[in-house]
Design a protein that fits this description.
Elements (H helix, E strand, L loop, with lengths): L1 H13 L33 E3 L4 E5 L2 E5 L6 E3 L32 E4 L3 E7 L6 E7 L5 E17 L2 E9 L4 E9 L7 E6 L5 E9 L2 E8 L7 E7 L5 E8 L1 E4 L4 E11 L4 E10 L5 E2 L6 H5 L2 E5 L3 E5 L16 E6 L4 E6 L7 E4 L5 E7 L7 E7 L11 E2 L5
Antiparallel strand pairs: 1-2, 2-3, 3-4, 5-6, 6-7, 7-8, 8-9, 9-10, 10-11, 12-13, 13-14, 14-15, 16-17, 17-18, 18-19, 20-21, 21-22, 22-23, 24-25, 25-26, 26-27
């Protein structure tokens, strides 16, 4: 039961579940039409992005630059005498003096046309804002700040798409809005609903003329998932999967689905079913002969053009809890061939994975389980040859 309470607190804080996505990986393809290169989305945030110059991470409210080879890093601020060099401040709002600071909580960061766009915390309220940062650390501009709670954010074809939640006397309204990046004043509503009063919108992604997102309820540990897509031209909405406890990972050529239900709370136990669907075909059930993770009841956690990602369900207590030394991220080719096992026992029960680029996947971990104290690791995909691959920590200096 303690695990359930802990899970509810963490999930409530992050307001999310990792969602289904389409992926475009690799360092190449930074032309004008390629907003997103790689997949760095997990739960209610997307704390990593990549540009031709390197990677950018949001850590403890500051944007960091990290070189492609992970050997150089710095806070993205050009001020020689800056508050980011201090050990701490009495008031977090003082950190806004630094060009690299974007607030506290969860974040989304994207590279687009020689600039960074970040969903962070407002300078004026405890709610959210969208910032534009220069790649050389010389400036930060407030692009959007209307005192609202933004639970999703994505950049697509020169437009900013974001989820806005507003609380009224007798209802909760969820809205998908958008505006041109060069004209944020031209804001328009794409979609609005009051059908999900106990939910938040998470895991927004836009591709091929659609916006995909997930309605998540943070009030219940055992919750129903609602995956939705919106036609960006007509605004018409369609449910991708009937509300059910599930995890859906959508790809262009193949998709994966995990359905589950809680059997008991004490000891904690789940029944899980796994499926795969190739483009244009129906869902086919998967067995442990197809994927080792099916037999281990691992959690489905990611998909890219080459691999599907599972991780140990470290909440399970039946037939017995999995020892921390056996915690793994298991990576497979789409046909079930095991590509790599990544040990994660040192990270405890809370960590996130990102399929990343063609070259590297990433993990986000938390010091002492504190979501405000992240650490990042990378894993070299060239070592995905069926064996154990150790993650390497990314050192970030000021």
């Amino acid at each position: 039961m303690k695990k359930l309470v802990s899970a509810a607190i963490v999930l409530g804080f992050l307001c999310s579940l990792f969602w289904a996505s389409f992926h475009s990986n690799g360092r190449e393809g930074f032309e004008e039409s390629s907003e997103i290169t790689g997949d760095f989305t997990s739960f209610s945030s997307a704390p990593i992005t990549i540009s031709p110059e390197g990677y950018y991470f949001v850590k403890e409210g500051f944007v960091y630059y990290v070189s492609h080879d992970f050997q150089k890093s710095t806070v993205l601020c050009d001020k020689l005498e800056c508050i980011h060099n201090d050990d701490g401040v009495d008031n977090l709002f003082d950190y806004y003096e630094c060009n690299a600071y974007v607030g506290s909580g969860s974040f989304h960061i994207y590279y687009y046309k020689d600039a960074l766009y970040v969903r962070g915390t407002s300078m004026n309220t405890v709610l959210d804002a969208i910032y534009k940062l220069s790649l050389d650390g010389t400036g930060r501009t407030v692009l959007y700040d209307k005192g609202t709670a933004l639970t999703g954010f994505f950049i697509y074809e020169g437009m900013a798409y974001f989820a806005d939640t507003s609380w009224k006397a007798d209802s909760v309204a969820h809205t998908i809005k958008r505006f041109p990046l060069d004209h944020p004043e031209k804001e328009e509503v794409l979609y609005e609903t009051a059908e999900y009063p106990d939910h938040t919108i998470n895991q927004m992604k836009c591709m091929d003329g659609f916006c995909y997102f997930y309605f998540f309820c943070s009030r219940e540990v055992d919750r129903e998932s609602s995956y939705v897509k919106i036609d960006l031209e007509s605004g018409e909405a369609e449910k991708l999967h009937e509300p059910k406890n599930c995890r859906l990972e959508l790809g262009k050529d193949v998709s994966f689905l995990m359905e589950y239900k809680v059997i008991s709370d004490e000891p904690y136990d789940k029944e899980k079913k796994y499926y795969r669907a190739k483009k244009g075909e129906d869902w086919e059930p998967l067995t442990e002969e197809d994927f080792i993770s099916v037999g281990k009841r691992d959690n489905l956690r990611g998909l890219d053009k080459k691999y599907v990602y599972f991780m140990t369900d470290n909440w399970l207590e039946v037939p017995e809890p999995v020892p921390e030394d056996d915690y793994r991220v298991r990576v497979y080719e789409h046909d079930g061939t095991l590509a790599a096992e990544i040990p994660t026992g040192e990270f405890g029960i809370l960590y996130y994975i990102f399929p990343g680029t063609e070259d590297y996947m990433f993990l986000e971990t938390f010091q002492d389980g504190n979501p405000l104290k992240p650490e990042f690791y990378y894993v070299d995909k060239s070592q995905f040859q069926g064996g154990i691959v150790e993650p390497k920590r990314i050192e970030m200096g000021k």
